Amino acid sequence: MRNNFATAGKWEIPIVRKQDLPYGKIDLVACSDTRANDNEESRKKGVHFFVDDYRFNGIYDNPERSLNKYSQYAFLLTPDFSTYADMDLWKQLESVAKNRWVGAYWQSKGRIVIPTISWSDARSFEFCFDGIEKGSTVAVGMIGCKRNKSLFLRGFWTMVEKIDPDRIICFGSPFPEMQGNLVVVDYRDSRKVVR
Fold it and tell me: What one-character-per-residue DSSP string does 99-161 give?
């Protein structure tokens, strides 16, 4: 049995509690570019998971090992498990639940955790915003969403309505229509190695 955490919503998705980050510039490093005993400058950054799922799939299966690796960094975004519209809905629900469980687990171990929010189409809106406290700082990935701007914006505005985030960390350039307290992170700056 896995650790049980407080849950929310119809699907009892684990809750990632609201945590604050200092205001100002936010620097991130890709999970695939982290390493044991990283340098002091890198340890001041947060870790993001806006990379292919195979690079971090083990994070849910071996949470203790991943915690040891990522604990040296200032904060962690929750893993961005894929929620594509052409995936079966149960797989999308599983991706969201794993995202929140890992975040709740890391928080239970004293880490600062910012939830990454992702969605697919309107069917996913029933669960993809669950497990996030109102007023939280959240993160969204802008890479890949350019192909379906209207669908992305529909989900974005639904997220804003349901979560009312304090700040939104945008990994990549936001659309001009996006409003709110946006903190833009250039994805190229977050990679040590550009693949």
Answer: HHHHHHHHHHTT--EE-B----SGGGGGTTTTTB-TT--EEEE-TTGGGGHHHHHHHHHHHHH
pLDDT at residue 145, as a whole number: 82
Collapsing DSSP states into helix, strand and coil, what is residue 52? coil
Q: Is 43 helix (H, G, I), strand (E, B) or coil?
A: helix
| Alpha carbon 117 to chain centroid, angstroms | 5
Which residues have a Cβ under 8 Å from the Cβ of 114 and sit 6 or more positions away? 19, 21, 46, 75, 76, 77, 78, 136, 137, 138, 139, 169
- Greater confidence (36 vs 168) lies with 168
Show me where the domains of the chain are located: 8-190
β-pair type (13-14, 7-8)? antiparallel
Q: CA-CA distance, 99 to 115, in Å (whole number)?
A: 8
16: helix, strand or coil: strand
Question: Which residue, among 102, 58, 63, has the nearest Cα to 79 in the 3D structure?
Answer: 102
Q: What is the pTM of this model?
A: 0.93
Report residue 195 as tokens.
């693949």
Sign, CA dihedral 162-168-172-175, equals positive
Question: What is the CB neighbour count within 10 angstroms for residue 95?
Answer: 23
Q: Which two tokens stand for residue 126?
A: 């029933």
